[in-house]
Write a structure and sequence with these properties.
The chain is 13% helix and 51% strand. Strands 4-3-2-1-5 form a five-stranded antiparallel beta sheet. A hairpin with a 5-residue loop joins strand 3 and strand 4.
Length: 82
């Protein structure tokens, strides 16, 4: 069930909101995979930050797809000058 929700959110570029532990998280979902240990994880950019974080499926609850707002993936094309 979670995988279907996440795949649809990635395809439609919709934000996700969920509880991770006791913290409410808003992410732009990018990638789903299974780690070597066998645990499924989703990678996403935390809203209003530039960091990509990994979230374990088993700790994610109360998933909401925020279909009223979309995002564009951040793809660095030109290296930033120092």
């Amino acid at each position: 069930m979670k995988t279907t929700i996440f795949i649809n959110a990635i395809r439609t570029r919709s934000y996700l909101r969920f509880l991770y532990g006791l913290q409410e998280i808003y992410i732009e979902p990018y990638y789903i995979t299974t780690e070597r240990s066998g645990k499924k994880v989703i990678y996403g950019r935390v809203k209003r930050t530039n960091e990509i974080k990994k979230f374990e499926y088993e700790k994610i609850v109360n998933i909401r797809v925020l279909s009223n707002s979309k995002f564009s993936p951040v793809i660095p094309i030109i290296p930033q000058a120092c």
